[in-house]
Amino acid sequence: QVQLVESGGGLVQPGGSLRLSCEASGLNLDSYAVGWFRQAPGKEREAVSCIGRNGAHTYYADSVVGRFTTSGDNTENRIYLDMSSLKPEEPAIYSCATPGLLCGSRWATKEYEYWGQGTQVTVSS
Known about the structure:
Elements: E1 3-7, E2 10-12, E3 18-25, E4 33-39, E5 46-51, E6 58-60, E7 68-73, E8 78-83, E9 92-100, E10 119-123
């Protein structure tokens, strides 16, 4: 069975930083791309980033460019999302999923599967 599990969420002050982790079982992240998404109450789910196999390519939503970075750890079979300069309007549940083998230029609109349960990020002073 394929399973993705997110962790690392919590409370952070505005302007602060946080690292989220997506741990995979049942598939090797050396071979699969992984995307990060977020959803706030009353809002549609937003595509945040996508990282290709072995970190060959990374893609980011315009809203997070320069502040968020996604990377991989092959030994731990994990994908990370490093967030900085967090804004008060960015609390959300962050989830990871895979679009398959590639992100591609249309990464944000591809179909993703094996969604994790998500991890809550709260931004408050």
